[in-house]
Amino acid sequence: RPLTFEEFEHRVNQAIYVSATPGPYELKKSSGLVVEQVIRPTGLVDPVIEVRGARNQVDDLLGVIRKRVEKGERVLVTTLTKRMAEDLTEYYRDLGVRVRYLHSDIRTLERVEIIRDLRKGDFDVLVGINLLREGLDIPEVSLVAILDADKEGFLRSQTSLIQTCGRAARNINGTVVMYADVVTKSLDAAVKETNRRRQMQLDFNKKNNITPETIKKSIHDVLSSIYEADYYTVPVVSEDAESY
């Protein structure tokens, strides 16, 4: 049988944790021995973060989206629920925005196609939930909007907010707009950490005369997409149980 977590911990004397956003467990276990890799080879820096009031977030965001679309850039929008993602998509679509939504009810292959079409420019805005938090490496995205950023919980924790902000770090014009009426502990920590990293990156670029450039990444056919590989189904083990 697989080891329990406690058994695993007992057997491991030394370990190296590798994470862009280490959690409390890793930080505690490492006893403060953390080596940061904040500087990117591309010279790109963490995005600028704006915090705006959430009262008129939908209509305010519409204006921000239109400005980005005029520049030929893409936008990611995160909501808290599937219903909100669908309703927001319908509302913006009725106003002429080329927008689609992404959530767990959508088939794997269709998700791959949606991401590819966003990169190709077939539409401009992608609305989603936690699916936007990890694994979406889209250089064309220059704006990430986080609705209801002050609603504490899994989707709006410090780690989740930092990871979501990172979706805008592939573009030289990367910006994050967080909509919140209250600055929560998680929101405040995420903004401060992102700003800290950004300043380190700016200082390094200035010192070494580095000019950041947006990542250039080819758009592969959907069947060979790296995103499809993320959802690869591992075959069932065929050996007899007696072999174990």
Automatic annotation (TrEMBL):
All residue ranges annotated as the Helicase C-terminal domain in the record: 57-223
Matches recorded under CDD domains: SF2_C_UvrB
GO molecular function: ATP binding; ATP hydrolysis activity; DNA binding
Example of a GO cellular component annotation carried by this entry: excinuclease repair complex
PROSITE patterns hit by this protein: HELICASE_CTER (PS51194)
Example GO BP: nucleotide-excision repair
Designated name of the protein: Helicase C-terminal domain-containing protein
Organism per entry: marine sediment metagenome
